[in-house]
Design a protein that fits this description.
single chain, alpha+beta, eleven-stranded mixed beta sheet, 21% strand, elongated
């Protein structure tokens, strides 16, 4: 009798907007648990657990048998694109993807800053933008190529004194000390499309940061001195910024969510069904949080930006641009948009983000579409199986090649 093949390893899925990376993993796990494809894996895991001693069984936090699934690095909830997923023993390989380069396509909208550095946040300040041209933007991009220092956004999953930065921000508390810049590298950074005023549908969010929170956030983002010059008419060029930056704004460079492999062994008890069809979600993003009703207002704003509804966009409104980049681990695209706006003597927020490639996984080539999970095992299983088989063969070939090189190096020369 032929032993059923156990498939495990690494593949990639196209994460939709509105869902956190952790939620996508839970949805994958929910589809995999009852499937025929992963029944051999479950049987083998059940047999392995039956051989555990009493101490090992007591230590096991997860008493229920679930397909072991994890992801290789967080992707912002508003972002779409390549999310690397490990299954079974493949979860042990996820750490290898944290240091690899990633390729993104992003859109930046000028003239405003938000507390989260993107359109899902709340407006902090507005700034002049009519002086920005394609030529000035292309010149500014040169300063962000190669090795640079970058500070993470205040709304990020990084820890400071045992607490995530976004928790300080949500609670309206000062962070214990200034966020330190980190070395990152931009392998390539190009302008894909210049979008003059009136030639795009991106727009600023409507919600603004409350006055009682503004001072605290200003201390972190160094934007306080810019307000007097820009509150009346951000498009006014009668008093343009000098020296390429707003007067009084501290020259700085900020740094994408914390790279961290996350393994999920059991689906959340709060969710019994697959996530609904994706829609643009919420206000201030909370990494690793499934749902947040407080996001609804900004969700409408972001959705309006995509559909052309909401407040009208005048031809005198802010310009935008589409960028493509390949960057190293720890790079924050939101910070690039924020810093680029300041470099141009204005402000900037990220309005769209797609991760098109990570390691060998690339959209349109070898990435599972999230929508296929809803179409049933007959649709997603053949694709996932082939991806995992390809991965197993790749790992076997690399191991074989390494063994040959080791044997060759150990043999004496002529």
């Amino acid at each position: 009798m032929t032993t059923p093949r156990i498939v495990e390893g690494v593949f990639a899925i196209n994460k939709p907007k509105s869902l956190s990376s952790a939620q996508v993993v839970r949805d994958i796990q929910q589809a995999f648990n009852p499937s025929k494809l992963f029944a051999p894996w479950s049987d083998a895991e059940r047999a392995r657990r039956s051989r555990e001693n009493n101490t090992q069984r007591r230590r096991r936090k997860d008493k229920n048998l679930q397909v072991k699934v994890g992801h290789g690095g967080t992707l912002d909830p508003m972002a779409t694109g390549v999310l690397i997923v490990g299954v079974g023993r493949g979860t042990k390989q996820l750490q290898n993807f944290l240091g690899c380069t990633k390729t993104y396509e992003a859109s930046v909208l000028f003239g405003a800053a938000t507390d989260s550095y993107d359109v899902l946040g709340r407006i902090l300040r507005k700034a002049p933008y009519n002086h920005i041209t394609r030529e000035k933007l292309e010149a500014a991009l040169k300063k962000f190529r190669g090795s640079i220092e970058q500070k993470p956004p205040l709304y990020s999953a990084l820890h400071m004194d045992g607490k995530r930065l976004y928790e300080y921000a949500r609670e309206g508390k000062e962070i214990p000390r200034e966020i330190k810049a980190r070395p990152v590298r931009t392998e390539s950074l190009e302008l894909r499309e210049w979008l003059p005023a009136g030639c795009h549908e991106y727009r600023w969010p409507d919600e603004e940061v409350a006055n009682e929170e503004r001072d605290i956030v200003d201390q972190v983002l160094h934007l306080g001195a810019s307000s007097e010059a820009v509150e009346n008419d951000p498009g006014d060029d009668k008093n343009p910024p000098d020296s390429g930056l707003l007067r009084g704004v501290k020259r700085r460079r900020d740094s994408e969510d914390e790279d961290k492999a996350v393994i999920n062994r059991s689906p959340s008890n709060k969710r019994l069904e697959m996530s609904p069809a994706p829609v643009m979600s919420g206000a201030i993003q909370e990494p690793f949080t499934v749902h947040d009703e407080g996001r609804d207002s900004a969700a409408n704003t972001a959705a309006d930006a995509q559909t052309g509804t909401g407040s009208p966009l005048h031809s005198s409104g802010p310009p935008a641009a589409k960028l493509s980049m390949t960057v190293t681990s720890g790079f924050y695209v939101r910070s690039l948009c924020h810093d680029l706006g300041q470099e141009l003597g204005s402000l900037g927020i990220m309005s769209e983000l797609v991760r098109t490639k990570q390691s060998d996984f690339e959209l349109g080539r070898n990435v599972l579409e999230y929508a296929d999970l809803r179409k049933g095992e007959d649709v997603w299983a053949p694709q996932v199986e082939q991806m995992l088989v390809d991965w197993q063969e790749k790992m076997a070939n690399e191991t074989s090649g390494a063994d040959k090189r080791t044997r060759s190096a150990s043999q004496p020369g002529p």
